[in-house]
Each structure stands twice: as C-alpha cells, then as structure tokens.
Amino acid sequence: MDNFTCKKMYTYTVNLKDCYDNVAPYGVLNIFQDVASKHVEEYGYGFLDLYKLGYLWILVRTKYEVKKSPKPNEEMLIAETWQSEQGRADFTRDYVIYSKDGEVLIIGTSKWCLIDVNTRRVAPTKVIGTNIVNNEKRNFSEPFKKLEFENITSGDSYLEKVTFSKVDHNGHMNNAYYAEFIVNALRLKSNEVIKNFEIDYLKEVLIDDEILIRSIRNNKEILVEGYNNINNIVLFKAKIELF
26, 23, 135: which is closest to 77 by C-alpha? Predict the structure, then answer.
C-alpha cells in the first residue's frame, strides 16, 4: 500500500454535472469525500472502525479550484488524496482530480476533525494516534482559515428543507448537499462557471431543518450564508468565484 496517497477512478456521469454539463460543486465534494473515505479505510479508520472507538469524522471546511473544466464528454476522472498535516484538533487533507490522460483539472483541500459520538464535541486527533502518514505537499500556499465576512442581511434568499435522503450515516446532512442547496439558490446562468468554491460547515444540520440561504454578489464573487430558519443561527458560510 502507498502510505502517502490514495487514488480512485470515477466515471464522469450526469450526477457529477450541472444542467449546463459543467462539473457541479456537489459532484466535486462527493468525489473528495469518497476518495478520502477510501484512504482512511486503508488505515483502519473508516466509519465503522472509528465508530467502535466512539468517534466520527466531521468535515470542518473545504475548498477547491478548477484549473481546467472537465470536458462534457469526459469519460473518466481520477482522484488522488493525501493527508498533508495532523494538527492537535484537525487534519488537513489535499486532493487532485485528473483527466484520464493525467491532466490536472481540479485541486482542493479540506479540514477534518473527530467528534465524540456521545458528547458531539471535538476530540484531539491523538486519540487515533499518528498512523496516517503525512505527505507535506500542499495544493495551496496560503493558510486555510475560516471565511470571515459580515452576516448577509440583504440580497437574494432561498428556502430549503432537509429531507430524509439528504442525511448520511453520521445522522446529519451530508456535506455535498450543502453545495447542492447553494446551487439551487444561486441558479447560475450558462455563462456563469464556478472557478473557486469554498465552504465552512459551522453547525450540524439535521433532518427536517429548514435552511434559509442568503447570497450577495460583487461582480464575479458570490458570498453565501445558510441560516436555521427557526432560530436564525448561521449554519454555513461559502464563497464562490466565477471564471
């Protein structure tokens, strides 16, 4: 086994694309999540293994940059991932999505943490040791920090409800569906193609929660926030840059 990286091939089907045949944010996040899961499973830290220890993987934030859009008729994508850092409270993981010919299409990075199954509080990373080997290669040179922008009180708004099909085995809405909700809210036009996508997951979102999504645009930059429609707590923040 290659301890440093993990690769997996994906058929580039319609579920990874939007209605204009551009790669969809929820498609990218699904691939990132899937190949990351495969990598930790190789170390014995998959969902079931970790659950037996009393912990769950939780995605804190993620971002990606499209270097070159996959062709609409692209048959296959290859995703590669590696753990680039194990901090005291979180893990940094990087990703590359290639064409079948090896051309770099998308690069990304993410922050993961562990939470205690019973308390739902963040646990130190040392509880599972240091068995996942760090590959110090980084896709982005700048520090991967929280999104910092003022709460959106104006602009466009859109309401979504978390249905049963959106919930994963952790008992909350899967991270890729946040991106799906954002895409539904923005309704980008055919000439509006996403270059950069970044999202911070601030609070767990549960079944039947209603999410009010607010967005504001400044030329090619779009800021997005998701609020709990009952108590007005901010659930996530996102920033999007168009080509």
Answer: 23
